[in-house]
């Protein structure tokens, strides 16, 4: 008669595996000072008695007061509000802090912001600001909560830069209140400014200028964008070309490239080798044809009216 095969856990390999598992679990227990089964002291900071106790530590070893068995349909948060009835009331009020949090993120639990078992004197409130619309980055990460949330008011705190940094505005309001358009949360300096957003994009040689070369006296608003504001008309022009430098010049090169507007075959240089002075002996605002033609209206024929 054949013997029945032993159950898997009672085979030699099964027993070895069981012993190894127990050794590993025991090792972790001692290495982590029992944290596997005893996660640490409860908070002992006293307050108004809730649920008959003045602090979490006063609950003793009654884990079931806060923790629910894994087969239960109840949650740990439901055990919390059994004592914290004020929070339970706030959950029903969307204008309150806890009520607003429940509406914006249904996955939040009490322990998300209020962890325990971190020692008798540890803070019972640790807020992950990444859960909110205003995420903390750069230097904001190390700012104490009370620096922004005055008098422990957490709901409705302004999120615009000016609310906290108005006194640090060295620009006297010239650039508005959106500090983030030039500054970052890492540091106030260096600042970066996209001049294209100002309506006067910096191109060519303008891009390498320092701010102070155009913004003298630290004046940054209502500056004239006319060329002559920074580039007085050269004396060689004798005031004959007006103030719109871009008719002939570019921001990349001051050497003029002038296309003659209309007439003269489109360009004086192509008009039988005429020079500027041939047609403009007095100034560039007026033109005469009589150096080569017998009148200032030589006609449409290529020979110019007989001149």
Summarize the structure in short.
The protein is mostly helical. It is 22% helix and 0% strand.
Topology summary:
Blueprint: H1 12-31, H2 76-83, H3 85-91, H4 97-104, H5 110-113, H6 145-148, H7 161-165, H8 211-214, H9 227-230, H10 276-279
Q: Total helix count?
A: 10
> Which radius of gyration do the C-alpha atoms yield?
41 Å
| Global shape | elongated
Mean pLDDT reading: 79
The count of β-strands is 0
Helix content: 10-25%
Give the biggest beta sheet: none
As a percent range, the share of strand residues is: under 5%
Terminal residue distance: 137 Å
SSE string: HHHHHHHHHH
Class of secondary structure makeup? mainly alpha
Uncertain segments of ≥5 residues (pLDDT<50)?
none
Task: Kindly describe this structure.
It is a single chain. This protein is mainly alpha-helical. It starts with 11 loop residues before the first helix and ends in a 28-residue tail after the last helix. The protein has helices spanning 12-31, 76-83, 85-91, 97-104, 110-113, 145-148, 161-165, 211-214, 227-230, 276-279. The protein has a domain at 29-126.
